[in-house]
Design a protein that fits this description.
By secondary structure, this protein is α+β, with helices and mostly antiparallel strands. The protein has eight helices and 15 strands.
Length: about 290
């Protein structure tokens, strides 16, 4: 599965260290691409690459100064490995990252292509979600139900003045709320974040959660594996994926990076009280 995260603050500031540490944690297990998106000076800036996150950061020294950033590290399940199949998927003023799997979507995709004349650049299921959001906004959930599209997903959607997060059952996504800062991570097991409610659109702005809107769930299918729920926060054991026990909250293959990002999240109030005043920082180049 892919992994993703975000940081949203009350004012623009340099959040480079947080993004580097957060995304690099996943470089050994989610190594099929990396990308990020943020607004600076009212302009959407996107970078996406088939490189894993750690490799990307070795080749850039650019700073990320913004009040809202989303990032994504990919494990390819469809569409091959390339810059274009990496996340985020984006348009002029919106970017989307997705973790999960979509089923039975070809009929709906054909509807978008033939009836709505929407073109696709990849064969990745995540692009279907993105094109649906461009066309229908959050009404896409009803369209998925109409066309019997199923599966599970956790979404991060970045717009000019708001950031949205959403998850269906099975998918994992959590938020950490600090003073003037919100941090999102797709591992509520290993990071100190609280799982967001299922089938609820969470709207984030200026470092605060400003709305929680319940939706219908997309059609679901029984997954091909069983998750072992083991505590009251619905944290689960994924040891069959990584070869370690989540209950120890420890990455045996990357303890230094894990400790660093856990510390970063725990001290995230520093972001809500800081500010980057260097308006001349160079933007990350928009990716393919």
């Amino acid at each position: 599965m892919c992994r993703q995260g975000l940081i949203n603050t009350n004012e623009p500031q340099d959040v480079t260290n947080f993004i580097v540490a957060s995304s690099s944690v996943y470089s050994k297990t989610q190594s099929d691409g990396f990308g990020l998106a943020y607004f600076k000076n009212n302009r959407l800036t996107v970078e996406k690459t088939k490189l894993k996150a750690m490799s990307y950061w070795l080749f850039t020294s650019k700073k990320i100064a913004s009040d809202s950033v989303i990032f994504h590290t990919r494990t390819a399940t469809s569409g091959g490995i390339s810059d274009s199949t990496s996340h985020p998927f984006y348009g002029k003023s919106v970017a989307l990252t997705h973790n999960g799997v979509l089923y039975n979507y070809m009929t709906f995709k054909n509807e978008l292509e033939t009836e709505n004349h929407i073109g696709f650049n990849t064969t990745v299921d995540s692009e279907v979600i993105f094109r649906a959001y461009q066309k229908y906004g959050w009404d896409m959930i009803q369209k998925f139900d109409e066309f019997n599209v199923g599966g599970y997903m956790a979404l991060q959607i970045l717009e000019r003045d708001k950031t949205f997060v959403y998850r269906t059952p099975i998918a994992d996504y959590g938020l950490w709320e600090g003073k003037n800062v919100i941090i999102g991570m797709s591992d509520s097991v290993i990071f100190p974040v609280r799982q967001i409610p299922e089938n609820t659109i969470i709207t984030i702005q200026n470092g605060e959660i400003i709305a929680k809107d319940k939706t219908e769930s997309i059609a679901s299918k029984k997954p091909t594996y069983e998750r072992e729920y083991w505590d009251s926060n619905s944290k689960y054991n994924e040891s069959y994926w990584y070869g370690y026990d989540h209950k120890t909250t420890h990455y045996p293959w990357m303890p230094d990076e894990y400790d660093r990002i856990k510390s970063t999240v725990s001290k995230a109030d520093d972001y809500g009280n800081g500010r980057d005043d260097d308006e001349d920082d160079e933007d990350i180049t928009r990716g393919d």
